[in-house]
Amino acid sequence: QRVEQVSVRLREAVCARVQSKWLNGVPFSRGMKSLDGRHVCDAVEPGFLAKVAVALQSSVFAPLEKPPTCKLYIIMKGCARYRGSVRGLGYCWGALDVMLTNVGDVMPIPRATSIDYLHVAWVDGQTLRRIANEFPLSRHSLRVWTMINGIKEFMLHTLRSAPAEEREKARRWVQEQAAARKSGPHGTGRRK
Q1: 8 Å CB contact between 93 and 75
Q2: Which residues are bridge partners to 114 per DSSP?
């Protein structure tokens, strides 16, 4: 109740300070570099993170419960199984499915399952997109991150569901490309 009595700006500053540890763990908040270190997109703006911090909701899930998809979750307490691994404090999931509203039509959305009582902070995609509209640079970073990771996840999904001979053919191609990159144009192992 006291939070409602302070100015919007002060509320954003306090929430951003309190939640910054968690929000900086969200994949698209950090920006992106390519494997060779080239800049791909910027980190989101501090003002964007401050507004997201204010918009965060919280929920608790009982053991073996599956949190709904299409929300960005951050584990605040407890643990969950996600993509075959146990995830704990600070782990974030759902970044791609909150940004791609129809991702479930193209490939399955991974689901988390709480192992014990799972306390999470979350925000939905509609709220994230509404906030991003106020921050054009952050909106651009979110879109670039989403495009690159969406394509990557789609390719991995396609590869996982492909027949064994197609997967083997793709594996050989990747090895050939890696070998070609290592040898470089003059066999020195360096790229020009």
Answers
A1: no
A2: 80
Three-class DSSP category at 64: coil
Residue 58's H or E segment, with its range, is strand 57-61
Residue 32 has φ and ψ, to the nearest 5°, of -150, 140
The DSSP secondary structure of 79-124, one letter per residue, reads: -EEETTEEE-TT-EE-HHHHH-TTHHHHSPPP--EESS-EEEEEEE
What is the C-alpha to C-alpha distance for residues 111 and 157, in angstroms, rounded to an integer? Answer: 15
Indicate the length of the chain as a whole number: 192
Query: pLDDT of 69-110, one tens digit each?
Result: 889 999 999 999 999 999 999 999 988 888 887 777 777 788
SS (H, E, C) 121-149: EEEEHHHHHHHHCCCHHHHHHHHHHHHHH
Tokens of 170: 């793709």
Q: Spell out a b/e string for 44-66, using b for 16 or more CB atoms within 10 Å of the CB, else e.
A: bbeebbbbbbbbbeeeebeeeee
Q: Rounded CA gap, 53 and 172, in Å? A: 45
- C-alpha–C-alpha distance, residues 96 and 53, integer Å: 18
pLDDT digits over 35-65, tens only?
Answer: 888 888 888 888 888 888 888 899 999 999 9
